Amino acid sequence: MRKIIRDRGNIKWTAMMLPEHVAMLRELKMNENNKSKPLIDEQQLEEMNDLIRFAIETNNSVIVTYYQEYDYKVVVGVIERYDPARGCIRIDNDGTLLTIDTEDIIDIKSN
């Protein structure tokens, strides 16, 4: 007598994957949410430079969006210093000083 195995249509398959494939799948999963840095044209750069100078002169708070570690980050604070030679700005965010490269800045808005 022949015995029939009833698995309700679920056939168990064993996947044979090389370690390289597993590593590539893990890397793909990690990089899935990475964002790319947008290109900024010269007109936007001039507007951001004008806003930085104005914010320093008037001691106004600004909202800075910048690109770091494959993601966009936002900080709100007062610009303490702008160093065009080093290409960075220093922002006071509630007592915490943060230095941001001007190359990484995506957008600046007055608060």
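[next item in queue]
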Amino acid sequence: MSYYFKTEKYDKDFLSENMMGPNPMLIVEELTQNVTLKKGMRVLDLGCGKGLSSIFLAEKFGVQVFAVDLWVSATDNLKRFKQMEIDDLIIPIHSDALKLPFADGYFDAVISVDAYHYFGNNDHYFDEKLKPILKKGAIVALAFPGMKYEVHDAVPVEMMPYWEEEALEMWHSIDWWKPKFEKSLSDFHIKEMQCFDKAWNDWLSTENPYAIEDRAMINADGGRYMNIIGLIGKLI
């Protein structure tokens, strides 16, 4: 079964202009392949960037999406949502993930694509910051860059020019991430995502300066070390 039945409809120029990393629409599509989201649900898109994942969630599922990001303004995202004629379902919010302005038990689901590793790569964020604003039984679906295995004690020589120490602190393996969620989530699944190559190729084909810089890194990696990790579950 293809994971890319929906994202092909979007204008390639629109996607290229608004990607901030590996194609988030491909990632969120695969991530939610086995997730049940229904109209009327309140969904937090945490670290939404320029809102591509929010657009996908609203269009495919008809849910009310709260598109939260620290680095992209709510005004800029609203313009994109209006451009896609989906602004009636998406509420853009400019906020820090460490200071989320929501009531306890507010959301039916949280989705996060290529963002959670920035603020959640520790033993306390999920329990202290995220869990309180989720309903019991809320869907949790997260995707973030990772490693096939822990490399921190023996960084491959060929990757040293590309992997900054700050980045390595956020990139970990499935075995590292799994204990941070398995006690809090039922129906818990964590795996290496299939869309890695296509999502990265879409990003690297843009003329974004950061994408141009990333080309050498992905070439040096050659599929040996990096991956995209996806996890889903329901809050216990």
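[queue empty]
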